[in-house]
Amino acid sequence: MKNYGLIINDSTESIFQLKKNGTSLRKELIAGITTFMTMAYILTVHPKIMADSGMDEKAVFTATALSAFIATLVMAFWAKLPFALAPGLGLNAFFVYTVVLKMGYSWQMALTAVFIEGIIFILLTSFNLREAIINSIPLSMKHAISAGIGLFIAFIGLSYAKIIVGDEATLVTLGDMSNHSVWVGLSGIIIIGILLVFRIKGAIIIGILISAIIGIPLGITHLPENIPFSVPPSLKPILLKFDFRNLLSVDMLIVLFTFLFIDMFDTVGTLVGVCSKANMLEKDGNVPRAKQALYADAIGTTVGACLGTSTVTTYVESAAGVAVGGRTGLTSFFVAVLFGFSLFFSTLFLNIPKEAAAPALVMVGLFMMSPIKKINLEDYAEAIPAFLTIIIMPLTMSISEGIVFGMLSYVIIKLLTGKWKEVSIIMYILSVFFMLKFFI
Q1: Residue 280: which residues within 8 A CB-CB, separation 6 or more?
Q2: Is pLDDT above 70 for 11?
Q3: Quick one: pLDDT band at residue 248, thresholds 50, 70, 90?
Q4: CA 195, CA 217: separation in Å to the nearest integer?
Q5: Smallest Cα–Cα separation from 364: which of 213, 191, 192?
Q6: pTM of the model
Q7: Pick from 5, 228, 280, 319: CA 20 to 30 A from residue 370's CA?
Q8: Which residues contact 3 (CB under 8 A, 6 or more apart)?
């Protein structure tokens, strides 16, 4: 009788070189489970956000799990790095609240923009052009964009829980504290906060589940009629639903740039940050197999758009798996398998109400605010554009508007203060392009 355990160990060793990387099958399994637990909230939160654009929530759930499964498998077997991918928060908010609800385009048009963005990202990766674009953007702006998206996402989360509501006199005001939705949302924020203080793995998904349970007697959470295990919802309502009309308008070109811009920095920042934390960077400071990792991101985005979801990106939550010993693509493989299994638990994830999912958005918003510490607020030529970027995003409910105002103000201030040499040629070109937005 064959020793299947030995066969599995030999196979994983030959593919992922566990011994060379100082890890083991057990460590990689634990790391995979840990990473999945820290990012599983996306299966609840993402479909609800996308549904605000008019998309079928159940179909989006399937697209979310399936795109994460495919992209993370590419990361596992091609890049062989312990990073997981899924549709990104911030990018989905831009998709829904800016492109669809603010600009007035259909979600089919937005999906088309994501699809083209994925193809462009593949080409940029192939020709090594991504470095030129990334290096052309000032560091202060990179930090500001992350912080601004954090505020934007937190704003959405607070509104989901009705902790803040619209008001004619003050534009935004505190919600009705007697509303059960408010208490479900607030309890979730407190619970996740306590779990984070104690560094409990999977704090966000645990907090979401407890909030959903609290919502049962309050009439917010409705228990499913069927058992949680179910056949994955059909992709038919959103599969390959592209609309190529008006794609060359100035608005849509800015949309394409914003998708590409945020995705590139999300991915590169995550890769560098997590690899640095795990001492995985090469001697020259580069990420090992970075090109393959970026391909995984680009392929995930392209395939995800076909399935019917917004931009797929590498998750910073991968750091949780790395922290417990994950060092190879085997960690990613286990994460992908768990996303595959989650396809059969749509009833469980979809029955979690918005109010219970809201705390996740608030906490992720907090995490994304951390780069603000790296902005030199004493240098006003850097601080003012950064501040405009951060504040414009939540106040206009538009990530792209924040980027436009930030970059234009950066170039104008540098020009008028004699610091024009500090601005890259690409930044000047982008500024002219952005100016056209206001006149065409």
Answers
A1: 81, 274, 287, 288, 322, 327
A2: no
A3: confident
A4: 23
A5: 192
A6: 0.75
A7: 280
A8: none
How far, in Å, CA of 337 to CA of 77, rounded? 13
User: Angle at Cα 66 formed by Cα 48 and Cα 193, nearest 5°?
Assistant: 50
At residue 166, φ and ψ (nearest 5 deg) are -70, 150
Distance CA 337, CA 162 (A): 35
pLDDT digits (tens, 9 = 90+) for 315-364: 877 777 776 778 888 999 999 999 999 999 888 888 888 888 788 878 87
258-289: pLDDT as tens digits? 777 777 766 766 676 566 655 666 665 566 77
Terminal-residue alpha carbon distance, the chain: 73
174's enclosing H/E stretch is strand 171-174
Q: Are 363 and 189 in contact (CB under 8 A)?
A: yes
The residue count of the chain comes to 440
Domain range summary for the chain, segments of one domain joined by +: 21-369
User: What are the C-alpha distances in Å from 269 to residues 264, 286, 368?
Assistant: 8, 12, 12
80-112 confidence digits (pLDDT tens): 888 899 998 778 888 998 889 888 888 999 999
Residue 184's pLDDT band, with cuts at 50, 70 and 90, is: very high
Q: What is the DSSP letter of 165?
A: E
Tally helices (H) and strands (E) across the chain: 19, 4
CA distance 196 to 214: 19
Q: How far apart are CA 129 and CA 121, in angstroms?
A: 9
* Residue (of 95, 34, 33) closest to 308 by Cα position: 95
Helical residues (DSSP H) of 53-202, grouped into ranges: 57-74, 91-93, 107-126, 130-136, 139-160, 180-197
Tokens encoding 29: 């399994």
E strands in 200-320: 312-314
Q: 54: alpha, beta or left, given left = phi > 0 and alpha = psi -120 to 50?
A: left
Q: What is the C-alpha to C-alpha distance for residues 204 and 320, in angstroms, rounded to an integer?
A: 12
User: Hunting for tokens 């479909």 — which residue is that?
Assistant: 47
Residue 66, pLDDT > 60, answer yes
CB 83 within 8 A of CB 336: no
pLDDT digits (tens, 9 = 90+) for 354-373: 888 788 878 878 877 888 88
Q: In whole angstroms, what is the distance from residue 279 CA to residue 21 CA?
A: 11
